[in-house]
TrEMBL record:
Domain GmrSD restriction endonucleases C-terminal: 474-594
Pfam families from the UniProt entry: GmrSD_C, GmrSD_N
Chain ranges of the GmrSD restriction endonucleases N-terminal domain: 12-225
Protein name: DUF262 domain-containing protein
Origin organism lineage: Bacteria, Bacillati, Bacillota, Clostridia, Lachnospirales
Matching InterPro entries: GmrSD_C, GmrSD_N
Domain of life assignment: Bacteria
Length: 606
C-alpha cells in the first residue's frame, strides 16, 4: 500500500472549490427522512448549545466543534469511497441555507463555492455526478423538479431536500442564519483520509470495517447481552435468534437494526429527555441516539437486567418487538384497510410513529391485541397531525419529539381499556380542530403536503361512503407518470377579479383557502392553468375528475344517487356553483368543517 494521508478538515476546507467524483459502481444516494432528521437535529442542537442571545458573528469563532467522522478519498479524481451520504446531505443543507439567505435578502460569501465551482468558464457541482445535475440545479435554484422516471439517487436527493425544508427548526431564524453558516462551515470537522490509488482506498475502507474500529452499537450490544448469559446452550440459541432478527431488520436498510433498537429502547425504557433549552444535558432519549449499547449497560438495573435469565428474556423481547416493528414498517409502506391509519401517517412522513406504536404493546400480548393497540395509537397520531397542521403548528421531529416522548411514557405497556382512556384524554388535550382554524387554513410551502393529504382523505372518504373504493393511495402517489396535484379553482389572475378582492394579498389569501382547492391529475391541472371557472367546471365534471371535483357541478347530483343520500344523511351543504368567489369558498369550507368532524373524531377511544 502506498502513502496514506489523514488530516482534520472542516466542511469549508473539504468542499470549497474542490471537486469530488462518485464512480458508477458506488452505492446510490440512499439516505431517508429519518437520517436527515437526525443530522439536522444533531447539528442545530449543537449550534444552539453554544449560541447565546446577542452573540455577534465573530463570537462563533469561540464555539465548540462537531465531529462528523472520517471520509475516504482515492486518486486524482478525488473519488469518494466512504462519505458520499454525509457529504451529499450536507450539500443539500448548504443549498437550503443559500435559498433561505436569498429569500431573506442576505448572502454568505463562501456558500456557493462550497456547492459548486467554476473551471474554464463552466460551473459544475463540487460533488459531480452527471445524472444528478438537472435535479441539483433545480434544488439550487429553488424550483420544482419532476422526479417521474428518475433514478433512485435523484428521487432521494430531491426528497431529502424537501425534508430539510420541513424539519429545519424555527429556532434558527433568519437573524441567526449567518451565525449558523459560520459554525457549519468552520466548526463541523471530518478526518479526511486520502489514498494514492483507489485500490488502497478500498483496502482502508475494508480494514476500518473489518476490525474492532467498525463494531456497531448493535454488535456491541449483542456481545454484552450474550456475555451475561451463563448457559452455553442458551447463549448459542439466543445468538441465533439475534442474528435471524438482525437479517430481517437489515433486509431493506443496512442501518435498520440500529433504527429499530433506538425506537424500541425509547418506546419501552427511556424515562427522560433533554429539555428544549441551550446547554441542557442529554438524557435517556438523546443518549440512546448514539451509543445505545453503553446506555443499556449503564442502565441495566432500570431495564431489569439482574440475572442470566433477565438477559435471555431481554433478547427474546428484542426478537418479539423486532417482528412487531416489521409489521409496522409493512403497514407504513403498503395500504391495508386493517392498518390504514398507520399508512396515512407515513404518507406525511411522521417518522416518530413507530416509537408511539410500540409503546403500549406488551411482550405477552397476542397478535390480535397488538394489532388493535397499533390501530388505536395510529388513530391518535392521525388526529394529532391534523389538529396541529390545520393550526399551522409543525409536526417535525425536532419540534414535536418532546411531546411525543411524554405521550409514549403515558401509554407505555397499557391494556386496551387503559390505552383507550389515555388516548381519549390526549385527544381532549389537543383541543382538536376548531371551525375557525379551517376557515383560516390555506396553501403555502409548509401546508402543501398536509393539504394534499387532507384533500386526499376527504375525497377518499366521500368515495367510500358512496360505494366507490377509496382512491387515496393514487391521490398521494408521486411516482406515477401523471400524479395528482393540488388544483386552484380560481385562476391566478387578480386582474379578472378586482371587483371582488380588495388587493393582491386579499385575492391570494382567498385563492389559497382550503375551500378553493381540489386534487386533479398533473396533466389536467397544467391544461387548466389559465382557464376561467366556467371552462374548468366542464373538466371537473368529466371522467377526468373525482366525486369531490364533480360536486361543483350539477352532474354529481343528477348521476350519483348514493352521493345525494350521503349528503342527506349527514346534512352536508354540498351544492353546484355557476360561479366561484368568496361566498362559494366560504360555503365549501363549511362543508369541509362537517366532513372533518366525520373523518377525524375520537369514536375509536370510546
Amino acid at each position: 500500500m502506498k502513502k496514506i494521508e489523514g488530516s482534520p478538515k472542516n466542511l469549508r476546507q473539504l468542499l470549497q472549490n474542490t471537486k469530488y467524483s462518485i464512480h458508477y459502481y458506488q452505492r446510490e444516494y440512499m439516505w431517508q427522512r429519518k437520517h436527515i432528521e437526525e443530522l439536522i437535529d444533531d447539528l442545530t442542537s449543537e449550534f444552539l448549545d453554544y449560541y447565546k442571545p446577542g452573540d455577534t458573528r465573530p463570537a462563533v469563532a469561540d464555539y465548540g466543534t462537531y465531529f462528523m467522522g472520517s471520509i475516504i478519498l482515492a486518486g486524482r479524481e478525488n473519488a469518494i469511497i466512504d462519505g458520499q451520504q454525509r457529504l451529499s446531505s450536507l450539500t443539500l443543507l448548504l443549498m437550503y441555507l443559500n435559498n433561505r439567505l436569498k429569500a431573506a435578502g442576505q448572502s454568505y460569501n463562501m456558500i456557493e463555492t462550497m456547492i459548486f465551482s467554476e473551471s474554464f468558464g463552466t460551473k459544475s457541482f463540487n460533488i459531480n455526478v452527471d445524472d444528478r445535475q438537472e435535479c441539483m440545479e433545480a434544488i439550487f435554484n429553488n424550483v420544482d423538479f419532476d422526479v417521474t422516471g428518475a433514478g433512485e439517487s435523484v428521487c432521494n436527493l430531491y426528497g431529502r431536500y424537501q425534508d430539510i425544508q420541513e424539519v429545519f427548526p424555527e429556532d434558527i431564524s433568519d437573524d441567526l442564519l449567518l451565525h449558523f453558516c459560520d459554525w457549519l462551515a468552520e466548526k463541523v470537522f471530518f478526518i479526511e483520509i486520502v489514498a494514492t490509488t483507489e485500490q488502497d482506498a478500498h483496502k482502508i475502507f475494508v480494514t476500518m470495517n473489518d476490525r474492532g474500529l467498525s463494531l456497531t452499537s448493535t454488535e456491541m450490544l449483542k456481545g454484552y447481552l450474550l456475555s451475561e448469559i451463563k448457559s452455553d446452550s442458551v447463549r448459542e440459541k439466543m445468538n441465533n435468534l439475534w442474528k435471524d432478527k438482525i437479517l430481517l431488520l437489515k433486509r431493506d436498510d443496512d442501518k435498520g437494526d440500529e433504527v429499530f433498537i433506538k425506537v424500541w429502547l425509547r418506546a419501552h425504557y427511556a424515562e427522560t429527555i433533554r429539555e428544549n433549552r441551550a446547554k441542557a444535558k442529554n438524557k435517556d432519549f438523546d443518549i440512546i441516539s448514539g451509543s445505545f449499547h453503553k446506555w443499556v449497560r449503564d442502565e441495566r438495573e432500570k431495564l431489569g437486567l439482574n440475572s442470566s435469565d433477565d438477559y435471555e428474556l431481554f433478547i427474546k423481547k428484542f426478537a418479539k418487538f423486532a417482528d412487531v416493528y416489521e409489521l409496522i414498517r409493512k403497514a407504513e409502506a403498503v395500504f391495508s384497510e386493517e392498518t390504514k391509519y398507520v399508512y396515512y401517517n407515513a404518507r406525511v412522513n411522521f417518522t416518530l410513529q413507530p416509537q408511539l406504536l410500540l409503546a403500549p404493546i406488551c411482550y405477552e400480548d397476542p397478535w390480535p391485541v397488538i394489532t388493535e393497540k397499533i390501530n388505536l395509537t395510529a388513530r391518535f397520531i392521525d388526529l394529532l397531525i391534523i389538529s396541529r397542521v390545520i393550526n399551522y403548528r409543525s409536526v417535525n421531529y425536532s419540534t414535536i419529539k418532546n411531546f411525543v416522548f411524554n405521550v409514549t411514557k403515558d401509554i407505555r405497556m397499557t391494556d386496551i381499556p387503559a390505552l383507550k382512556s389515555k388516548l381519549q384524554q390526549q385527544y381532549i388535550n389537543l383541543a382538536f380542530v376548531s371551525e375557525t382554524a379551517l376557515y383560516n387554513w390555506g396553501l403555502n410551502s409548509f401546508t402543501k403536503k398536509y393539504i394534499k393529504h387532507f384533500l386526499a382523505r376527504v375525497t377518499g372518504y366521500i368515495e367510500e361512503q358512496t360505494g366507490v373504493a377509496s382512491n387515496y393511495c393514487n391521490y398521494m402517489n408521486t411516482q406515477t407518470k401523471n400524479p395528482f396535484e393540488i388544483e386552484h379553482i380560481i385562476a391566478d389572475h387578480y386582474e379578472w377579479f378586482t371587483s371582488e378582492y380588495s388587493d393582491q394579498d386579499d385575492f391570494r389569501r382567498w385563492r389559497n383557502s382550503v375551500g378553493a382547492l381540489l386534487l386533479l391529475h398533473k396533466s389536467i391541472n397544467a391544461s387548466l392553468n389559465d382557464a376561467g371557472y366556467e371552462y374548468k367546471l366542464k373538466k371537473y365534471c368529466s371522467n377526468e375528475g373525482n366525486i369531490y371535483t364533480e360536486s361543483l357541478g350539477d352532474s354529481a347530483y343528477q348521476n350519483h344517487p348514493q352521493f345525494k343520500k350521503f349528503i342527506a344523511d349527514h346534512n352536508l351543504g354540498f351544492r353546484a356553483y355557476a360561479k366561484f368567489g368568496k361566498t362559494e369558498i366560504t360555503e365549501r369550507t363549511a362543508v369541509l368543517v362537517e366532513l372533518t368532524k366525520l373523518i377525524w373524531n375520537d369514536e375509536m377511544f370510546r
